[in-house]
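Board notes (copied after class):
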Amino acid sequence: MDITAKIKGIEYEPKLTSQLKMFDFSGFDINRLPANCLINFDGFSFGLSKWVSPKRTRSYPYERVYNTLGTAKRITVIPIIKDEGKNGDRDFVQWDTISLMSLLDVFVVFAYYNAAEKHKKQEDKITKQQFDNELVKQKIAEIKNYHSSALHWNLKEIEQSFPYLIQRVKESYNEIGKRLNVAFHNEQGIDRFANQFINGVKDFMQTSRQKAQEAQKREMQTIQPKEALSTFTKATITIENYLGGKYYFTTDEIRIENDKIYLIEAKHSRTSILPSIGDIKDGLLKMMLYTNLKNVSVNDKEYDAIPVLKLTSSKLTNDIYLTDFETNLELNHRQKEMLKRLFDEANENNFKILIEKAE
């Protein structure tokens, strides 16, 4: 099943954000900072998160970004390319990642790595890569005084900074390779990535979308180990924003009842009573999108979309409901406090929470 929808903007009140520690910009070192934090810059504070890879499935970058969404201005640092060496992965930033950050009003600092250590066990592989801190500091200083939207900043950076950054990536990995005696992937892949920008952002958008669509189709045919679904009804959902930017997702589960379509994002745990907080916050970022959808259609028939975050566990003996979670003997105090905030977030933003014993 193919679902289409449109989105004009994001209105959402996060409740499950973590308490962030404040750091002063005067001693700023992106490589020493936690995954998300607050930065004080001459009396102005903003939320900062950083990715460990341009590919979102390598870690929980959505959780990191989510934790900064309660701040007035938020910045995320993403490596434009990450090469772990010839015997490791190589990933490139994708247009739809940038588009999603723009939609969430998150300023992106596109960065590159200029230091690393040789992997102790694997040949031609590196680890503990570090960002060029001076570049990140410079870009944050520019953002502090930038008064247009995150969208405008992100588009400007793609057009103006990508050619320089791609060249620096090549030079940096050459230097690291010589210093550590490590071979990297063929530079032709980076050159092909660079060629997307010769004709502007449109080529980058088109290539990224094509890859996202291919990944979407692959995911449609796969049930992940972390999923415990009551049905196997997956569906593709393609969301278009007001600029024509498209996001390609796969719903874990859908259900249609009359004129309502339930868009279900499922998170599962086999070893704990509840899925991890990283999984839950990853799911909440989907809720941010799904709660702001307009014109949700299947085969030209329009439906009212009901977003659902479904949490399942193999350890649960019974389903958990809003009316009884506080007296549930399977949950500890910390889990109950988390669920209270989660139910508050669902109520505030008009989506549903299901917590079920896995079939």
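Comment from the instructor: Helices lie at 61-66, 95-103, 133-144, 150-180, 188-195, 201-220, 277-290, 333-349. DSSP finds eight helices and 17 strands in the chain.
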